[in-house]
Predict the 3D structure of the following.
Amino acid sequence: MSCKPSAVSCKLYVCICFLTTYSWRLISSKKRVVSGITTSGELHLGNYIGALQQFIALQSEYDGYFFLADLHALATVHDPEKLRKSIRSIANLYLACGLDPEQATFFCQSALPAHAELGWMLNTISTMGELSRMTQYKDKSAGNANDSIQAGLFTYPTLMAADILLYQPKLVPVGDDQKQHIELTRNLAERFNKRFSETFTVPDVLTPKQGARIMGLDDPSKKMSKSASSAANYIALVDSPEAIKKKISKAVTDSGTEIKAGKDRPALTNLLTIFSELEDVSVADLEKRYGGKSYRDFKSDLADVIIATLKPVQKTLEELETDPKYVDDILAKGAEKARPVAAKTLAEAKTAMGLG
Ligand code: TYM
């Protein structure tokens, strides 16, 4: 029997080689996006609309690197049990909201020492002036004496810059409150490239057209926040239908009775934005739909839309909570995938600075 390959098998082989090369090119030519969520406190609708929804929408078209910013959480959480619980809960929520670990690289920041290492290197090219101008730092340190403000709160943005620059992304999808940090990241990347050598891609920020800043239900002049003092400020992604109904019915409204958005109507603008984002219907259409109707009718429907959005998320969450190993394995695989990418950039940055 002849062992020579037949003409047909040769053609098949060429065909497979072509397809493998072509599909690899397609994957590797995808633009990269990087983003993270700090593992402190509960995730809320603002995180969902401003960030998670974007991540999920981008994951098939982009080469996504999404992570749990647990080192950042250390700036405010010094209770190990609380931190562990928050890491687990936010990891589960990423997946329950639809992050697909087959498409995106999903990992824990602290699993890759390269983040802290590059963070330190970027500290050395940052100035006290630019870090003290960060709004988030000013808000979080307001009213505290210098002696009691943690240094980690101050250098938080340089670690964030390291998180991003390590992966050389084109885009960083975030909510509005992180824009200033991405601007600083761009400045640091440009400064590094100029002072040493061309090392980092200078990324662009990507914020959703609508819903980049979801406001507090109890005070529409302040953003919805994990660190809000009252749970009436936000809808947590794990809130029960009863809690959601109660929080929405108590949500602050504007004077007057019209269901209309506008600069002078911050509370209704916020509620309409949430409705519009979750039901994928325009604010203008909602204004028409609720013309002549009461706040009560509108709020009752809004609560139903939020409950319907969160129902499948909470169902998946319950399943994930019974299988922590499944999630741990996903994070371990993600870290393995992220490691060589981060290591390559870190090595280049070290050489550029004269370390080796
Ligand atoms: P964090 O954990 O505060 O928020 C996670 C994401 O949710 C967005 N977000 C909001 N969007 C709309 N309305 C709101 N009320 C709202 N509140 C929060 C945030 O803009 C963010 O996109 N420092 C970051 C985490 C981080 C990071 C990074 C992000 C660490 N390294 C590198 C991007 C790239 C933070 O604390 O986000």
Observations:
- The mean pLDDT is 93.
- The longest helix spans residues 324-353.
- Residues 34-38, 46-47, 49-51, 69, 72, 160, 163-164, 172, 174-175, 177-178, 212-214, 223-224 surround tryptophanyl-5'AMP (CB under 6 Å).
- The chain has two domains: 31-207+323-353, 231-321.
